[in-house]
Amino acid sequence: MKKRVLKELLFSLLFVAAAVVLIGAASNALKPARHDYGAVWRDFLAEEPDSMDYLYLGSSYAYCDVSPAAIEESSGLSGYCMAGPEQTMGISYWYLRECLRTQSPRALLIEGTALHFKEFQDYTQVNLAYMPMGLNRVAAAFTVAEPGLRTGILFDLYFYHDRWREVSLTEVRDGLLPAQPSGLRGFTPVDGVAENMDKAPFVRDPQTEEVYENNLSWLRRIVDLCAEKGVTPVVIFHPTYSQLPDEWHSRMKQDVEAMDGALFFDLSRSAEDIGLDPMTDYFDAGHLNEGGAVQFSHWLGTFMRENIPSLAE
Amino acid sequence: MNFLTPAYFLFFPAAAALYFLLPARLKNPWLLLCSWFFYLCAGPEYFVFLLFAIGVTYFAGLRLDKKPSRLPLVLAAGSLFLLLFIFKYLGFALSIVSRVLGALGLAIESPALSLILPAGISFYLFQSVGYVIDVYRGKRPAERSFVKYALFVSFFPSLLSGPIGRSDQLLPQFDAPRRFSWTGAKSGFIRFLWGAFQKLVVADRLGVVTAAVFAAPQDYSTAQLWAATIGFSLQIYCDFAAYSDMASGCAEIMGFSLIQNFRTPYFSRSIQEFWRRWHISLSSWFRDYLYIPLGGSRRGTARKYVNVLIVFGVSGLWHGAALSFIVWGLLNGAYQVIGGVTAPARKRARAALHLRDDGKLCILWQIAFTFLLATLAWVFFKAGSLSAALDVLSGMALPRAGTGLALFSGRRELAAALGGLLLVLARDLWSLKADPYRSLAQGNRALRWAVCLGLLMLTLICGIYGTGYDAQDFIYFNF
Which residue of A lies nearest to B413 if distances are taken between CA atoms? Predict the structure, then answer.
């Protein structure tokens, strides 16, 4: 009797395992490939473990502005931009946890505009549904995602099963085969030149005190995690013509520097010093175009070497 | 909480596992607790109606057991049907009165009522009234245990959309704790999986087409209207049979057996037979508690036909408070009356054509004709109003070209619908010979795994669900 129960239990478990494997494969086959515009997890995980000096997190202001290849050219530092569209501080925290499972960077740079993002921005689905399935994704689903999106974040096919109507065999094959490293390393080069830049800079609306404090609390968790893992946390604002009011920059500098070991670099008003031309190097007021991003990244590599002690050597 | 929600996928395994793990005396209270929780999830405001139905019929049963008399029966059944009337039919009745008075030149505005319709009320009221009548008739003693009786009425797998349980079939199953059986669990799981496939892949896919066509029949060609109408026949079967399969599957996993609600109804050779194989728990309820008390076929042919029309008129009304439902019911009754009246002539015609009654050609013709009749009647069911039904039927009768709209959004969609229907046909053919779920549960493991994993993946990939899909949308939830 006991033997039969054990046998049935064992086969039940095997059945569940087979179902999980098939569901995982179907999810990979049906989820649209993602190699740019952030949340490029498959490409990231294809990188050699423990091969990065730094990690870059943030929103489109990070993945449009930062070219890890250009940084490496100017400084020899290897890294990856694991940003995501409108990536909130909460999502950045779970991204960092997941990244640190395979990489041991010496510094973490976070583009800081997310301190003034809403609790939920518009791309939670993309940001979280592309994370590898595991505890971090589950925790993210319950802490930083809209409740209505949780089912899909926990179960890929909920969002993407409909693609069976249009998916091609090539896409299925690419989704099932292991990913290859991408030379872009999370960078998304965008073409085009911003208009109306003669009227720049533009003022960006800050969030309420409550929202800011919530974002700051996630940043504290990031800084604590960095301290635990021996990573230098850096909050950085890129040269931009979509600027938060001055008083908020002072406030953020003060708040970040109060966190143990955290560095704060505000380059938001430094475009000209870096050599960026608002009439040619910007895609829009907030994002650099490809040329601007490469120029900025060259400059940034040197800056990182000189200003982040853990990256100095 | 419906069967196809993440909440249910957490709720059911926990409910079933604890049912088997708890000591015998706690099993029924636990199931009752689960059932009430399940119902509360449908809407806490409905719970009082369920409690009322349980309380009234429980005490009426005890009273009837002590001294059989009509009064407790009339009071119990009357109060429940009054409740049903108020919440389901009052608005409809007032609109009819208003129309009649309007026709007589006494125009009055019927008040716009916005009463809630408690989830599953048509099902559990019929189940509890059936119990009281059984006790009154001495068919079974009143149930002394309140917990057992409350569980009989509230048993969660069948609470919201049936099958409508019968006191002699379901109540005794709560007398002794059910024992776990691997075969039962496997069979129940496969039955549930099949239900999910039938619902998400077939019924809801057809539902997208039929909803679009019935919403604007003037935009579609005659052939498309026929396709959509046939599609609705298949959709409603797959939708409701899916719910019954999922309900029975869950019950079976826990060791319970619910009434079989469908026996391949579209293989019926007459409308009379169709109603013996379609929504069996409701049809048999009407037979036992309405048709037979009306005199059934014992008072002559003419009275029998009147009784049939009454039963089917009421059945139509049970399905919904609208004239189109009554017409649908009466049409099904009329089919049977006409079938009865023309039976001798049809028999003579078959003889003249040298067609054997049980010959393949004759059977196929009868099945096809019965399907056609049922399909035409479903137009009234689906259309929502008499004028809308007549729009569809006139479009089907008078050839016309549509505006070029396609029924399916692509070839893959069409293939999924047809492939799904082929599987439904295969299952139905299999079920004529054996119980497919039990056969698979007891049969070869490799085949079982292949079927289960195949169904699971087809449902998860080709099913109509996800963002924007309303999981509450089982057709019979509306009743």
Answer: A165
Which among A135, A159, A163, A133 is positioned nearest to A148, based on CA atoms?
Answer: A159
Mean pLDDT, consecutive 10-residue stretches, chain A (313 aa), reads: 88 96 96 95 96 97 97 96 97 98 97 94 95 96 95 94 94 93 95 88 90 96 96 96 91 93 94 93 95 96 96 87
Is the predicted pLDDT of residue B115 greater than 80, yes or no? no
CB B230 within 8 A of CB B152: no
Distance from A140 to chain B by nearest Cα, in Å? 18
Which residue out of B88, B148, B304, B319 is catalytically annotated? B319
Nearest to A159 among B460, B461, B466 (CB): B466
Q: How confident is the model at residue B406 (pLDDT cuts 50, 70, 90)?
A: confident
Q: What DSSP element (H or E) covers B222?
A: helix B222-253
Residues 6 or more apart whose CB falls under 8 angstroms from that of B99 comprise: none
**What is the edge-to-edge ordering of all strands in the sheet holding A263-266?**
A79-81, A54-57, A107-111, A232-237, A263-266
**Overall residue count recorded for chain A in this entry:** 313
Is residue B92 scored above 90 in pLDDT? Answer: no
Give residue for tokens 């999986």: B193
The domains of chain A are located at 35-144+181-311
- Give the whole-angstrom CA distance, residue B122 versus residue B279: 14
CA–CA distance, B383 with A61 (Å, rounded to integer)? 53
Entry pTM: 0.89
CB contacts of B412 in chain A (<8 Å) are 164-165
Query: pLDDT tens, A184-224?
Result: 999 999 999 999 888 878 888 899 999 999 999 999 999 99
Across the strands, what pairs with A107?
Answer: A54, A232
Burial of A183 (0-12, 13-18, 19+ CB in 10 A): exposed
Write the ipTM.
Answer: 0.86
DSSP code at position B112: -
Give domain A35-144+181-311's CATH architecture.
3-Layer(aba) Sandwich (3.40)
Using a CB-CB cut-off of 8 Å, the residues of chain B touching A23 are: 457, 460
Residue A37: other Cβ atoms inside 10 A: 16
Q: Do A164 and B460 touch (CB under 8 A)?
A: no
Q: Residue B371 pairs with which residues in a beta bridge?
A: none
Q: Where are the domains of chain B?
A: 26-177, 183-478
Residue entry with tokens 């099993």: B27
B6 touches chain A (CB under 8 A): yes
**Bigger pLDDT: B266 vs B470:** B266
| pLDDT score at B401 | 87
Angle between helices A68-75 and A290-307 (to 10 degrees): 50
State which residue of chain A sits closest to B446, comparing Cα positions: A15
**B462 at the A interface (CB within 8 A)?**
yes
Counting one residue from A and one from B, how many pairs have CB atoms under 8 Å apart? 45
In this complex, do B445 and A11 lie within 8 Å of one another by their Cβ atoms?
yes
Mean of pLDDT values over B127-131: 96
B319 is a catalytic site residue = yes
Of the residues B197, B411, B460, B470, the best mutation for testing chain A's interface (the one with the most A CB atoms within 10 Å of its CB) is B460
Q: A159 contacts in B (CB within 8 Å)?
A: 466-467
